[in-house]
Amino acid sequence: MPNLLKLFLLILILLQLILIVRTIKLRKLSIRYGSFWILLLLLMIIPVIFPGIFEIISNFFKFEATSNMVFIIGFFFLFSLNFILITSISIQNEKIKLLIQEVSILKERIDKNGKEN
Amino acid sequence: MKVLVIIPAFNEELNIVNTVEKIKNISNKIDENLNYVVINDGSTDKTKNICETNKYNVINLITNLGIGGAVQTGFKYALENDYDVAIQFDGDGQHDENYIEKLIEEIKKGNDFVVGSRFIKNLSGFKSTKFRRIGIKFLSSLIKICTGTKIYDPTSGFRAANKEIISLFADKYPTEYPEPETIVNLIRKQYKVKEIPVEMHERKYGKSSIKPLKSMYYMFSVSISIIISSICKRGGNNA
Question: How far is the alpha carbon of B65 from chain A, nearest alpha carbon, in Å?
Answer without folding.
Answer: 10
